[in-house]
């Protein structure tokens, strides 16, 4: 598995790394909520271990944004010392798949991870994103339109993923900037340049256009309307 650990307790993080890496898994770590949301929304993980009390953004808010803004279905287990029923209800309503109170035994966490993954595979999570004749394979990161391979820079591929996950809804400019740069976007309108490159790859060689600009709002990737040329 590739796991994301969003946790600011260094000792716990070290224990998680020692335990799961010894079993062949790969872990990334984020020490605060903003960084965790950025990684969770822009990278592909099998599961996320999410603390509640985090700097910059608390766990439930990270989870809500991940589910609502990024439309991510990645399994999430909340790890927290908050063991009251109202707290658990908040966690589950925010989108948690499981809730484990601290302190906990690492073998129990491993078993819960296995169980969550077994359940969530039944949701048929989207491994290949599709909009009209455009596909993005999340396993290989290969993009194709009408069977033709599209050559994309990493930033364009990330924008494509965010737009495809949201399709046919519009994605605001600030959300796309956050997907690329977190809360530190570069000076100048770099997003416009990346959108230009993405449009040239996705729409340039084709008659039907999928990527649409919504002035003063953002961008939308959507199938052509019925009867459109």
User: Main β-sheet: number of strands, strand sense, barrel status?
Assistant: 5 strands, parallel
Report the uncertain regions.
none
> How much of the residues is beta strand, in percent?
15-25%
Structural classification: alpha/beta
Q: What would you say this structure looks like, in words?
A:
The protein has 229 residues and is of the alpha/beta class. The protein is 40% helix and 21% strand. The strands form three sheets. A five-stranded parallel beta sheet has the order 2-1-3-4-5, with helices on both faces. The model has no long low-confidence stretch (mean pLDDT 89).
Write the topology of this structure.
Layout: E1 2-6, H1 10-21, E2 26-30, H2 33-42, E3 47-51, H3 59-68, E4 76-80, H4 85-94, E5 98-101, H5 106-120, E6 128-131, E7 134-137, E8 143-145, E9 148-150, H6 154-166, E10 170-172, H7 173-181, H8 190-202, E11 211-214, E12 218-221
Parallel strand pairs: 1-2, 1-3, 3-4, 4-5
Antiparallel strand pairs: 6-7, 7-8, 8-9, 10-12, 11-12
């Amino acid at each position: 598995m590739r796991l994301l650990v969003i946790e600011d307790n260094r000792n716990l993080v070290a224990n998680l790394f020692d335990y799961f890496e010894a079993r062949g898994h790969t872990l990334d770590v984020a020490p605060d909520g903003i960084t965790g949301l950025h990684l969770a929304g822009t990278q592909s993980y099998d599961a996320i271990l999410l603390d509640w009390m985090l700097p910059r953004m608390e766990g439930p808010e990270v989870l809500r944004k991940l589910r609502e803004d990024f439309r991510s279905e990645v399994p999430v287990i909340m790890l927290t010392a908050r063991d009251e029923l109202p707290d658990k209800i908040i966690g589950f309503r925010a989108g948690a798949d499981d809730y484990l109170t601290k302190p906990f035994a690492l073998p129990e966490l491993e078993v819960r991870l296995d169980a969550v993954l077994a359940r969530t595979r039944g949701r048929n999570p989207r491994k290949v994103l599709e909009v009209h004749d455009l596909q993005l394979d999340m396993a290989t990161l290969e993009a194709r339109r009408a069977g033709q391979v599209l050559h994309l820079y990493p930033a364009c591929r990330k924008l494509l993923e965010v737009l495809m996950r949201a399709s046919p809804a519009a994605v605001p400019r600030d959300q796309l900037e956050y997907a690329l740069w977190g809360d530190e976007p570069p000076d100048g309108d770099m997003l416009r340049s990346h959108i230009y490159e993405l449009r040239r790859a996705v729409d340039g060689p084709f008659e039907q256009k999928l990527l649409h600009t919504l002035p003063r709002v953002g961008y939308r990737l959507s199938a052509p309307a019925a009867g459109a040329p």
